[in-house]
Predict the 3D structure of the following.
Amino acid sequence: MKKIFILSDGTGQSGIDVLRAALVQFHDSPVTFTIHSRVETRERVKELLIDAKKKDAFVAFTFVKKDIRDYVHQYCLRHHIVHFDILGPIIRILSSYLGVAPLEKAALLRKVDERYFRRIEAIEFSIVHDDGKSIERLDAADIIIVGLSRTSKTPTSFFLAQQGYKVVNIPITPPLALPDALFETDQGKIVCLQMEPEVLQKVRLARLHHAHTSDNTYTNLKRIYEEAEHVEELLRKHRQWKVVNTTNKSVEETSREIIDFVIGKDVVI
Amino acid sequence: MKKIFILSDGTGQSGIDVLRAALVQFHDSPVTFTIHSRVETRERVKELLIDAKKKDAFVAFTFVKKDIRDYVHQYCLRHHIVHFDILGPIIRILSSYLGVAPLEKAALLRKVDERYFRRIEAIEFSIVHDDGKSIERLDAADIIIVGLSRTSKTPTSFFLAQQGYKVVNIPITPPLALPDALFETDQGKIVCLQMEPEVLQKVRLARLHHAHTSDNTYTNLKRIYEEAEHVEELLRKHRQWKVVNTTNKSVEETSREIIDFVIGKDVVI
């Protein structure tokens, strides 16, 4: 089995993110990952590279210190280890574009600052307002998501919350009406998730399988069509709502479309 | 103000991830971001590059199709636009390492598959088990987090849940005892978050400020010391628990340490 080592003087998270994105392009290749975070000395780097060589592993690394990057590169060249520097090239080119030298400090992720609090607040807000549990403070929400059961509301809300957006998500459960407050708040931040009935049925069936329960009406295609028709009718009445089709879409894609719609293309990252 | 464009035939998320990691190395440089996702034609690419040139923007891109990457590269060279290919180089080298040609299909993120369900289940599990709200199904948790109020339990739980781990988090609120069930489950998956009292006070003060409420005892340093002593005593009694010091640590760093401790360095990404 092919092995990928991620070496980092931080968490290695950007290495994980990039490798995940790249690896879906080779989806049938089984690979195992080993993450070595907070690797801070040359001695430790060397130990790990010796291990990588022995296992014929691919070494991807995210070191913010240039001398460690250079050391890894030289060592790998000399010992014929396939390696890839994830942060070095982008730091180099950003430095030249911004006209500023990099700090080269590991673990510079924003700690107890505004961004940190915004993110925590967003997560806590979104927990309280998940699945229609509370519709208080609708006006404080950045984004309001509505949709039938299993159209991806919860995972999408939490992906958005991680990025600092306060999300309320409210299930559409016909024949029950949506809460009045929803129609009284800013309609420009409401997004309705839709999914093709056949795919929604598949998701619900898989969900039941995972939850080890059964509920025939919930996965009955005729009933799902009726639910979908109810949503269509809502959308005809509320043309200001944005619609995102989540059929066969990843949570990341759905979230990106929602941000584009509600927040716009210019964002703080 | 410097501008960074992220162009992508997918969500651009890996571009965002890498730029975020690289940019903390230049933390005083104000930059605005514009994310253009699902850019699928050369015509659209060209429009955006013309705009980038006009604004003297840096163009980072994550296209999985090689011909689009080459087109962007050539266009930028010809028009002197600073640009950076985030996925191209790693896809190229992975292809050679794995001995497999890349699929070059955009939006290949895992849809309705095992991984998708695992992640959704983990998020839903972690919502139900946040902040001691439920301690049912402790045995089903992958990770159990305990700690004083504001030591980062909730954001850490949700960062871990996004990665597919089911997390229970339980607050330590002296003089109340922790639930008996905690001591009857696998002690190897319990992680206690600790924070230096002075920093914890700062976080609690900032939190009160954000929440627009006030509670003097909660932020009283003497009381925080007593709480911390209570935690020390718990740790002396339960030596199997892992301890992660979250003082000045990002949620990503804390999560990585927890994964290292409880799950190990070999992971599915």
In short: Chain A touches chain B through 93 residues (CB under 8 Å). Chain A has two domains: 2-98, 114-262.
